[in-house]
Amino acid sequence: MSEVPDNLSYTKDHEWMLVDDDGKIRVGITDHAQDALSDVVFVELPEIGSKYSEGDAMAVAESVKAASDIYAPVSGEIVEVNDKLEESPELINESPYEFGWMVVMVPDKKLENNLDSESYRKLID
């Protein structure tokens, strides 16, 4: 069964979000998503300063099985990317919620269209 931490918010597209104390949002893909992808071998991350609307494709995770778009869970600006994924994309498989995060965004507005952990568990069960 996939790990679904209670302290995160989720999207129906299998991204997770952690809102920091300063309002920034750390984003990655869920344990369920990394398991479905299998072994991630390459990650294409956006550039710092890039702006996205909610639902826009902002990154790509390529695995031995497929390439999958990663969608912006909220409209906003990319202010940090996880450079460690360039050399070690397997961190997404090994630690999707800690070391395998992808980007940090400054949102244009508060999160609204997200799922809590219970709702996300129901979605993937």
From TrEMBL:
Binds 1 lipoyl cofactor covalently. GO terms for biological process: glycine decarboxylation via glycine cleavage system; protein lipoylation. Signal peptide: none annotated. PROSITE patterns: BIOTINYL_LIPOYL. Keywords: Lipoyl. Residues 24-106 form the Lipoyl-binding domain. Pfam families: GCV_H (PF01597). GO terms for cellular component: cytoplasm; glycine cleavage complex. Its cofactor is (R)-lipoate. The modification N6-lipoyllysine is found at residue 65. Belongs to the GcvH family. The glycine cleavage system catalyzes the degradation of glycine. The H protein shuttles the methylamine group of glycine from the P protein to the T protein. The glycine cleavage system is composed of four proteins: P, T, L and H. This is Probable glycine cleavage system H protein. It comes from Marine Group III euryarchaeote CG-Epi2.
